[in-house]
Amino acid sequence: MAKKDKAIFLCNECGDTFSKWQGQCESCGAWNTLNEFKEPKGIKSPKGPVSLKGYAGAKESVQKLSDVRLDELPRFSTQNSEFDRVLGGGIVPGSVILLAGTPGAGKSTLTLQTLCELSHNIPAIYFSGEESLSQIAMRAARLKLVTEHLDIAAETDVLAVLTMINELKVKIVVIDSLQSMYHPDVQGVPGGVTQLKECAHALTQYAKQNGVAMIVICHTTKDGGVAGPRVVEHIADVMMHLLVMEGSRFRELRSQKNRFGSINELGILAMMPDNGYLRAVTDPSAIFLNRSRKPHPGSMVAALWEGSRSMLVELQSLVVESSQGNPRRLAVGLDQNRLNMLVAILLRHGNLAIFDQELYVNLVGGLKISDPSTDLPLILSMVSSFQDRVIPQDWLAFGEVGLSGEIRAVPSGLERIKQAAQQGFLHCICPKANTPKKLPTGITVYPVDTLVEAIDALDAMRE
Questions:
Q1: Cα Rg for the chain, rounded, in angstroms?
Q2: Which residues does 325 contact at the CB level (< 8 Å), separation at least 6?
Q3: What CATH architecture applies to the domain 286-462?
Q4: pLDDT by residue (tens digit) across 136-155?
Q5: Is the pTM of this model over 0.85?
């Protein structure tokens, strides 16, 4: 009699396993996240030199850590500067990259563009489990891509996929999508917990053993996470999200996990209105500083720092009298709790009572950030709106505001000031600790230690 598959229960949030079902996961505390998972016996391997024995490849003899060669992995560019930036400088051979995003964000478009560019020099193949070959060809024609060197296949059997990769000797693969793949020797429907885990397991093993880079497109849940067990994210080397900026044609590319680079980088892509092509935006400040010619109260420019570059964005505040006992406060693109904290700091250390006023703040452009360096420009924009005072458009600020009213230094102050000078700004209010010894040409810096000094700098502007 054949042995039955061993049944365990897998948590979708943390990936931990349990021998029996229970309402709450003991590891992460999440409720109703345990799903039954049957571990199959004797999974067959695809034909060819494909071994399914561990993620990193074949077993090797034990050696000293000091004897391991430190040769740098030869990255190759995606031909998209923003994609390369978020990846940490390009694609590493043998890496597995998960690309998640909401429907319509442009995941398939971005990966198809990338493979068409790379296929001129690197053998590449695109596997589609959701679209027919004619649909992919129609998209490529609309995007005006050169497709002569790119192989495509409509295949969902993960073992057949690995066999084709092995026969064609390709070096970069796109799987669209993981939720459409299935393992023929595993129970369950495509997209289920069992299938997702085993398909991700097989793809990762082949990539590591054969030095094949894989970009795997993933579906997302309504909460923005990758659909399926959390173990899929743990297996992959890079976890990226392609997000749609609200009310615009721009896309935000961020890395949630990256074994080969920083997770703080931000990539900006623009979807062309004529054909949907995703183009890299090399100067994001030019987008977020599309301001009206006539300055208005409540507007202030902030110098952010995302990954390895500075970005200039406009902050807007609107302070109006409240007719209710509980004034409304609304923050778009910024942290609501931090806004409440800044209102209290402004009352205690700035002698400005706006706690009884309705307050609306907005980060122009659709970005969502939590950079504390926006504290100072946000407070100054609130002061500008409350006092109906216009701040000239050639002024900007950055700095973190502490609970005692002090202005704290932030990283990369000189680079922020240089970026502001290049964009034509003439005046900058910044923490005293961030004041460089040698200023860029054409910009005046007002170093401040306290919130009162920062507000006084605005008063000096009027004089």
A1: 26
A2: none
A3: 2-Layer Sandwich (3.30)
A4: 999 999 999 999 999 999 99
A5: no
